[in-house]
Amino acid sequence: MREEPGRASRGYLGDVRGAPAGVPPPLDWEVFSRRTCVVTVTYGDRAHLLRRAIGAAFEAGVGRAVVVDNGTGSTSRAAIDHMRHVWGGRLEVVRLAENRGSAGGFRAGLERVRDRAECEFIWLLDDDNAPRPDALLRLWQAYGTLGADPNHALLSLRPDRKEYLLAATRGVPVTIVPNAFLGFHLKDVPAKVRRRLRPDRSGGGPIRFPLVSVGYAPYGGFFFHRSWLDRVGLPDERLYLYGDDHDFSLRFVRAGGTIYLCAVSEVVDLEPSWHHEPSASRPWVSPAADDRRVYYAVRNRARLERGFVTSSLAYWANVCAYLGGLAVAGLFGDRRPRELARRMRLLVRAIRDGRGDHPGGAVHEGPAV
Length: 369
Prior knowledge:
Blueprint: E1 8-9, H1 29-34, E2 36-42, H2 47-59, E3 64-70, H3 74-87, E4 91-96, H4 101-113, E5 121-126, E6 129-131, H5 135-145, E7 152-157, H6 162-170, H7 189-197, E8 211-214, E9 222-225, H8 228-232, H9 244-254, E10 258-269, H10 291-305, H11 312-333, H12 337-355
Parallel strand pairs: 2-3, 2-5, 3-4, 7-10
Antiparallel strand pairs: 1-8, 5-9, 6-10, 7-9, 8-10
């Protein structure tokens, strides 16, 4: 029976010599690490981050890495070629003529490895994700603890992802709440207020749930057996950017699999994500946030949440409440009413397109607002 998101295993994963009594022993470490392949996507001028991420992955024991060059310029291409020279046959590069977004980039990388026996296990990383030296070892330990069952996927912890940190420290479920909008639901407001009133609002503290099931995962840190690609397919390139990772990982759960957050396997973000950067208001209405990023993130999340709407009244109540809160935050935070009005129109368009299932096409060039 598939485990519900949020259910936790409190088993300690500190003994890397083997799994607890009664659990089948894990695959031999040397075999496991040699057959683990990192797939990552880079774009723009980020070769300096990519070099650190790939270096950290190899230091953690990864056997191979596939880098998708998502339409980078000549300077980055030269730097990637140098990395290929340094790491030899362990590093393979897939070159795309244009930036196809995270969905197209990871799709191309996974297409390259899906039929390769030497890439039995796939570990997805963003190009600025640097695994801790023991991160892969901890995944191996967790995989054995779960019976070395390919039906189980794993997710390394990225400490700046608050929802996953809360799952590991406090057991807060990571799941899509029915009728929620962008993760917001009016019924959750009291609990969120109580959490904000706590002395520690960061979600920090000791890891109480080192292995806890979650309802979906980002690309960065997602680990799974190669056979899953035959069961769930590849990322949906129509989504282009943002939310395509949640759409992809949700297919694992819908197909009867379980995703476990392995909180003792840590991956560090070398650069903060745009929606985690400080701003006077929330990033959705911050003038500093790029329109295209906001559009894709909101459109794709609205599209994803369509499948979890059980009451139109409750859903639209949450939409109105959340957008109203954003308007107030933007008005009194950044104090740019014209910019705020323009951004609110963009949000409405993104919701309409997501609800109407209009991904892809010319919007890749950026929405006209």
